[in-house]
Predict the structure.
Amino acid sequence: CQKPICILRILINMKEVISTHIGQAGAQVGSALWELYCSEHYLKPNGCKSATAHDVDMSPTNAFFSSTKHSEKYVPRCILVDLEPAVLDEIRGGLYRELFHPNSLISGIEDASNNFARGYFSVGRTVIEQVEDCLRRLFENAECVIGIMIFRALGGGTGSGFTAAYMDCLDEYPKTYRIEVPIYPSPTFSSATVEPYNFLLGEHFTMDDIDVGLLLDNEALYDLSKLYIGCANPTFHNINRIIAMVCSNVTASTRYPSVLQSDLSIMQTNLVPYPRIHFPLCSMAPVAGHKIATHENYNTLELIRRCYHKSTQLVKVDCKSGCYMSSALFFRGAVNPSEIYGSLMRIKNSKFMKFVDWCPTGFKVGICTEPPVSVPNSGIACPDSSCLMLTNNTAIGDCWARMTQKFHILYSKRSFIHWFVGEGMEESELSEALGNFQSLIKDYEEAAAPSEIEKPNGNDNDNENNEYEEMEEVETQE
């Protein structure tokens, strides 16, 4: 009797997601993300329900939290990993120290030193068993895990190298969607000289294992904070809260009731035309401070227009130089579907937007009725409705070409390679990563090229008709 009930619960309500935060950037993003999740689900910093949550339905928390039996406490389904203990020690002693399970905060003794090989081959192997045990425990305590979200920075040694080792552990769970939220290297400034090496190697080892990668970069996030929020000197804490809002909107339909469904599997189906081209760029509106938000009124058309504006993109790339392959719009709040489709028709008929000829429709719309929430004292205003756009544009190939050029400048002189080879990596793996990205750039160029449909000539039709007449004559003679 319990089996049908268990299957019914899985089909109706159980959509669970496991989050993995790797490296310094991943852990800092995780700290801001779970702070926002607690505000959305009426949870206190210790994981218990707040005083205003007595009449609130707590079933949406099942997607990202697991509840304990003996007390009304909700524990995040997450793993926070860093090879050095400094960042995780701040979480262990911070305001949300009682929220996370003690075994889910895993730190090593020695950092990766901005070296992919140390995170993948040598230092990262010291903690990989603890991470694998924690991941297995999360899967066993869940009913139906539909996806795994991975947060990391591609320029660091832990974010690039240890994530590649972590993806090997996910081979035991092949039917889960892998959603990656990587911090992409900025175009004009970087935090490490060997950032191109770490970036290409980190994506090369994990490209075939990731289903969707939501690209973000710090430079675009800084500009967004200065322009719309009003921060003269944005900090990592400010931009991490913007990343948390993006991830909250992506997963809103997994947690709350929706008019138009847009969970992780539907997002992948509508955004990824080919397995290797799975890197959509993000835009979000409105993201504004309290002073700016009091002077603006956002209707549906204005939200969509602002999402397609260059200033709200979270990656520095010119979408006008490429073609749109697909575009997904996720709305939250009281939004009228007829207004959305009417606005999309006006946007599509405008001159600035160009779709590839083999995908003329290219739009996916998701509507979540739950309004957006912002963290108190965060400096970001809480609007009545919001829109998140994920678009797969061929201009992303320019990002790969830019990083490939930086990689080639270092690799042509064989600079800094001895640090990677000394940790157990072969030099041929660097050339393989370079070749993989050169083929990826060609994939984007082929996707942007106009398709040529060969039409049969009239002579060919005449020859076919003559052949049929000859066959009929032979049949009549026989």
The first strand starts at residue 16 and ends at 22.
